[in-house]
Fold:
Amino acid sequence: MESEFLISIPGKGLSLEEIAFSYLELIEDDFNITIDEMANYLRCSYDYVQRNIAPYIYHVYINSVANKALFTHCEDSKYVDMFTKRKLFSRSKFQQFLLKESALLVDRQRYYFEELSIASRDKLMGLAEKQEQKTTTKMFETMALQQTSLLYSKTDLMNKVVKEFPVSELPVKLYSLKDLLDGIDDLNLKFRYKVSVYRYLEKQGIPKMKIQSLIRYRREDLENTAVYSLPLVVDKKEVLTSIEKMLGTDV
Structure:
């Protein structure tokens, strides 16, 4: 039974050249992603994509006639490496499918030094210079944790709230837990143990991107390093205001 997502290209009565350019037009326009590329992007197995994603993406078959036509008349195309593939999929439909099947899971809010007022930042930098054993960001984190413990009970902080948000734009790159364990050199992320990865993700408040049954992490979130993170139950504005009052810069 033919799939509703199969795009048929009629070849009857057409020359090899006409067949070649019918396929090439589709490839150049949109049908230029393979299962291998999908799996690499999602950091999952070929079989996972073949079972759970590929059947629902519009695609074309490169049969033996199309293969011969493409290699005969389009061998100079930048897509020549794709001519040997059995199936080529619509890149735009793949992207749309992922957005529909994805959600961002957030259970912590991230805090950045730049969120403090200029006066507070200057004050913290001055205090850090006097206490050489502490960095400015470490002082910021310590003060935030102190204020949080004053404003919220341990029970409040243990109340885990997870919010789910739609994904409106596909990430530049995704990473699996295994990728993090293996280390990401260009982000200078290296861990010896799985527990270290979990601690880092929690401290940084890195959101999870859920794609069907897959859990992945976005490169942009890993690049955008926070000073610390706190549970969603904590009112961020309240904590930052408390720090500024403590510093005497809440004018």
In short: The mean pLDDT is 92. The chain has twelve helices and ten strands. The first strand starts at residue 31 and ends at 33.
